[in-house]
């Protein structure tokens, strides 16, 4: 039986969009990361998609700014990222641990 995930914290629509677009970009960067196994075509496709996702991320932040949401509430947004598996997803962007073999 899979444990039930904690509920997402209350977010504005713009904050939710920011989180979703941020994770889209992170996922694509993880697929591009040359420190992980994969083929160049997969990385190329992810890089091509990254342009559109980065634009959507910019638009989400622009909307927040235009609505007067001038501050990111980091603890709340970090909780949302954790609920949405953000720790695992962002780990793909970093270098893997050293292998002494």
Automatic annotation (TrEMBL):
It comes from the Bacteria. This is Uncharacterized protein. It comes from Streptomyces phaeofaciens.
